[in-house]
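Priority: medium. Attachment 1 of 2:
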């Protein structure tokens, strides 16, 4: 397992799955073979599956250990959930994510903060577990930090993801609703990055002059580094999602900020750099 360091903070990826997920033609309205074929040679096989033509997406969390806190950013899909938008994600029984988390050396009771970039099925599933027929928080000692705007939107949706992954945390008294620029301490703070969802946030990490950022779903595929204006057709507000992605890429490009992605292929972590022909590129570390 690879451990990364940002100053005196350690960072581990906690992977749930990494597999071919969906064709770019299904989610990007602007995608055509003319735009994608010239890039197959570097997209395949890690980011684009040559057999199925589907984009390969990991679903993963990041575990941070600071001097004061043990923090999870996002909690993947989870088990036994009733969400049925993606058939393979419904009623899963595979607890690989839990095993991968404990392999980092932390116990569930050790997590004292859970941050949530947004309330989609693949980002908040392990917030809760089924116990005696009830959804209860997986991390008994954690405060779960939810952006107020995100919570308010999904409260009105009241979908299965909200009812199973978010509401039980609120009812247990472990949720904290915050502004989208909330700062926990000198090490951890949020940036509002709305568009993919109403209250999407990025989580910034800083220590001893070094910085990192977990960007949630501002990027789903390296294709969006070449075509930053391609945005999934299931985004909440497409122009706003494009604006947030552009702002992040422009701000981060050619800096030392380590970018922790939710869905770029393994190792998923690296630096955004300028590319003379492709607009942006990603140097994986
Ligand atoms: Zn996602």
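Attachment 2 of 2:
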């Amino acid at each position: 397992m690879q451990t990364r360091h940002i100053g005196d903070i350690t960072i581990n990826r906690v992977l749930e799955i990494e597999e071919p997920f969906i064709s770019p033609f299904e989610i990007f309205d602007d995608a055509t073979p003319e735009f994608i074929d010239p890039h197959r040679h570097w997209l395949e096989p890690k980011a684009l599956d040559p057999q199925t033509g589907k984009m390969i997406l990991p679903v993963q969390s990041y575990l941070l250990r600071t001097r004061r806190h043990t923090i999870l950013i996002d909690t993947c899909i989870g088990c036994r959930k009733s969400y049925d938008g993606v058939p393979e994600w419904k009623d899963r029984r595979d607890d690989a994510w839990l095993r991968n988390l404990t392999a980092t050396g932390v116990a569930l009771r050790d997590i004292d903060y859970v941050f949530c970039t947004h309330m989609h099925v693949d980002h908040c599933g392990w917030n809760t577990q089924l116990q005696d027929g009830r959804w209860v928080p997986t991390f008994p000692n954690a405060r779960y930090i939810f952006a107020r705007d995100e919570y308010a939107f999904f409260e009105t949706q009241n979908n299965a993801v909200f009812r199973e992954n978010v509401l039980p945390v609120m009812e247990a008294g472990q949720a904290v609703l915050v502004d989208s620029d909330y700062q926990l301490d000198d090490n951890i703070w949020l940036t509002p990055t709305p568009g993919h969802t109403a209250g999407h946030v990025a989580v910034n990490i800083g220590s001893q002059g070094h910085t990192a950022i977990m960007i949630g779903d501002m990027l789903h595929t390296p294709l969006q580094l070449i075509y930053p204006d391609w945005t999934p057709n299931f985004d909440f507000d497409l122009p706003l999602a494009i604006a947030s992605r552009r702002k992040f890429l422009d701000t981060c490009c050619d800096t030392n900020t380590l970018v922790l992605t939710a869905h770029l292929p393994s190792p998923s972590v690296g630096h955004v750099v300028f590319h003379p022909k492709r607009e942006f590129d990603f140097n994986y570390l």
